[in-house]
From TrEMBL:
Main location: membrane
PANTHER family: TRANSLATION FACTOR GUF1 HOMOLOG, CHLOROPLASTIC, TRANSLATION FACTOR GUF1-RELATED
Protein name, entry field: Elongation factor 4
Annotated EC: 3.6.5.n1
GO biological process, one term: positive regulation of translation
Any one of the GO CC terms: plasma membrane
Top EC category: hydrolase
Organism placement in taxonomy: Bacteria, Bacillati, Actinomycetota, Actinomycetes, Streptosporangiales
């Protein structure tokens, strides 16, 4: 295809603002999907996406569109993942485009995540088309939000397009505007091939399917190619485009978007952001912006039934085929048995992974509280990278560095107070604040990542009736006064409950955990102290009094079968109990104590 006739674009939108519906209308309008075969949300393929209403993996589809000038253009719609954890993948999708549709619900206005992605699109110099969706809704306020959008991107409110993805109203005008405003791709057709990987998906039948945007040269099928980050070479077994099903083509030229299959079986051999070139006579320089996937949040995952351990290992290995950011290594815990220490991009990535393990592999799992990576510098010059509280070094500590993020919060003005309180309590520092309109505020904070991974979203939602939204990106490290708090049962450390917290919060953490455990652990034949300690210094203590727990006292009267049942259940429960020193702890107690309420 002549690059002059290509338009590469993506849709930036908040969850539920109608990205999938708009994409569906575009497929329909350009005749790529016949009306009668149109199934809702053609582009959202994974079940879990459908259920949770989020788009995890980006894809690309080619739409042939005949514009007002009677010329047929190839519009490539590149889908972007919609959640904060996938910032890097979003940035690669944007880098594959020349333009972006900024899609905003006309009844809701712009959200923090959309704003963050818009800033990223502007950094990539993309042409931005502001579009208000859902104008068919009675609650729509297109004039109000057109003003808001115009204010943010610096255009005239009349330049904001108004559409309904549901009824199809305004979609054709939108595509015509797109052809007009998004510049065609530029590149060197005669230079050595350079193509950027913006997505990489494992397919059971075909191996890894790699989505690419060709920048220079030509990427043909049956060619030897090189992944520039690792210098590994592969053969392109198939090159194709998606429209809307995969279709083979002889190759892809400048500005074209499509997929390649090389037979590799693991997405780590075909990494998002990497540059593909020819194995012989290839390009000298990679395209800019490549990053190794970097796990930010760690948690221990344990099967509730210890015999599931091999199943969990196999399942993690399988998930890793399709997830270059997931890392794991075996770990043992005195309290929880055999499991894995897993690293994730963020909280949602963690949640999705756990949900998939439980659903697709029928596993029952328990996870330890998530923590971030700490750099610990000792007085003697040693340096430790700590991803697990149990690795926290003993001895004289000089400095501890923790990861911080830049957060963008958007909220109705009335909740500014509660948000400031929350961010303050989470050690945040306010960087700036702007009114987007009379009643909507953008607040920018620097916050420790550790404070966000622990129920920040829930707190934010409950303090703002669900109206505030947050987006964040990694922003380096800061020195902080952090300590490790251990929880001890009769003097024995319970590894799963050790936590690295700010010194000011250590006491509160200790009190909370000791109280919780006192309530959850049944009385033993002897008194059991539950303590929280920093090193050898005890900072909180509770006692579980010594009384033999007499389950039979619960059944007054003489129903013998009921008594027998209770005794059996008690036996059953004991089988699942773990010993911490001399203290017998039912597994249930660990599970409850680890779940955040
Ligand atoms: P994710 O895939 O979760 O990111 O959401 P999305 O942005 O793709 O939103 P989706 O297309 O799933 O739309 C969200 C909801 O809004 C669905 O119930 C749609 O039917 C509805 N919707 C989308 N566009 C319109 C519109 O123009 N008018 C009305 N009334 N509803 C719409």
């Amino acid at each position: 295809t002549d690059p002059a006739l290509i338009r590469n674009f993506c849709i930036i939108a908040h969850i539920d603002h109608g990205k999938s519906t708009l994409a569906d209308r575009m497929l329909q309008l350009t005749g790529v999907v016949e009306d009668r075969r149109m199934r809702e949300q053609y582009l959202d393929r994974m079940d879990i996406e459908r259920e949770r209403g989020i788009t995890i993996k980006s894809q690309a589809v080619r739409l042939p569109f005949t514009a007002l000038d009677d010329v047929t253009y190839a519009l490539n719609l590149i889908d972007t993942p919609g959640h904060v954890d996938f910032t890097y993948e979003v940035s690669r999708s944007l880098a594959a485009c020349e333009g972006a549709i900024l899609l905003v619900d006309a009844a809701q206005g712009i959200e923090a995540q959309t704003l963050a992605n818009l800033y990223m699109a502007l950094d990539h110099d993309l042409a931005i088309l502001p579009v208000l969706n859902k104008i068919d809704l009675p609650a729509a306020q297109p004039e109000k939000y057109a003003e808001e959008l115009a204010g943010i991107i610096g255009c005239d409110p009349s330049d904001v397009l108004k559409v309904s993805a549901k009824t199809g109203d305004g979609i054709e005008e939108l595509l015509n505007e797109l052809v007009q405003q998004v510049p065609p791709p530029e590149g060197d057709p005669d230079g050595p091939a350079r193509a950027m990987i913006f997505d990489s998906v494992y397919d059971t039948y075909r191996g890894v399917v790699t989505y690419v945007r060709v920048v220079d040269g030509w990427l043909g099928s049956r060619e030897r190619i090189e992944m520039m980050s690792s210098k590994a070479t592969h053969e392109t077994l198939e090159v194709g485009i998606i429209s809307p099903e995969p279709t083979k083509v002889p190759g892809l030229g400048v500005g074209e978007v499509g997929y390649i299959i090389t037979g590799v079986k693991d997405v780590r051999h075909s990494k998002v952001g990497d540059t593909i070139t020819s194995a012989t006579g290839g390009a000298a320089e990679m395209l800019p912006g490549y990053q190794e996937p970097q796990p930010m949040v760690f948690s221990g995952l344990y099967p509730i039934d210890g015999s599931d351990y091999p199943v969990l290992r196999d399942a993690l290995e399988k998930l890793q085929l399709n997830d270059a950011a997931l890392v794991f290594e075996p770990e043992t815990s005195a309290a929880l048995g055999f499991g894995f220490r897993c690293g994730f991009l963020g909280l949602l990535h963690m949640e999705i992974t756990r949900a998939r393990l439980e659903r697709e592999y029928d596993l029952n799992l328990i996870s330890t509280a998530p923590n971030v990576i700490y750099d610990v510098f000792m007085d003697d010059g040693e340096r430790y990278t700590v991803t697990n509280p149990s690795e926290f070094p003993e001895g004289k500590i000089g400095e501890i560095h923790e990861p911080i993020v830049k957060g963008t919060l958007l909220s109705p003005a009335e909740f500014v107070g509660p948000i400031m309180e929350l961010c303050q309590a989470r050690r945040g520092s306010l960087q700036g604040m702007d009114y987007l309109s009379e009643d909507r505020v953008e607040m920018r904070y620097v916050l420790p990542l550790a404070e966000i991974v622990f129920d920040f979203f829930d707190q934010l939602k409950s303090r703002t009736k669900g109206y505030a939204s947050l987006d964040y990106e990694p922003s380096g490290e800061q020195v902080s006064d952090l300590v490790k708090v251990d929880i001890l049962l009769q003097g024995e450390k319970v590894d799963a409950f050790s936590a690295i917290v700010h010194r000011d919060k250590a006491h509160a953490y200790g009190v909370e955990m000791t109280k919780k455990l006192r309530e959850l652990i049944p009385r033993q034949q002897f008194e059991v102290p539950v303590q929280a300690a920093i090193g050898s210094r005890v900072i909180a203590r509770e006692n579980i009094r010594a009384i033999r727990k007499d389950v039979l006292s619960k059944c007054y009267g003489g129903d013998i079968s009921r008594k027998r049942k209770l005794l059996e259940r008690q036996k059953e429960g004991k089988k699942k109990a773990k010993m911490v020193g001399r203290v017998e702890v039912p597994q249930e107690a660990f599970i409850s104590a680890l779940s955040t309420e």
